[in-house]
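Hi Prof. W.,

I finally got the Outer membrane lipoprotein prediction working! I wasn't sure whether to trim anything, so I left the full sequence exactly as given:
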Amino acid sequence: MSRKTIVALLSALAAFAGCASTQQTAAVAPPPAPRGIEGSWASTGGAVAYNANFTNGTFTSTESGTGAVLAEGTYRPLGPGQVTIEYTSRVRGTRIAANCNQVEPDRLACASSNGSRFEFTRRG
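And this is what came out:
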């Protein structure tokens, strides 16, 4: 091979290596904004696993395994990430109020008028 050919090959390899080593950084998307209280939530802990649904001011909770309705009621926002729920427990037949705070985008912590505390994580 001639000296010109070798220099040309080395130049081409250097140019190729420069292109190949140039990394493009992908744009990092901002974290998703909290979606508020609306939607489906799953209980965490407790004796019975259940799901809670918040839809247009209506609150329902159903047992995860059977789908049996455990409580029904209403809810209203108190402020960003805060909601108050008033529901009737089908198990006890009592009316209960609870205040909940969205402590993380997918976590809701609640305290009820009967002294119990419970939490939910967002489903889907």
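The longest strand covers residues 69-79. Does that look reasonable to you?

Thanks,
D.
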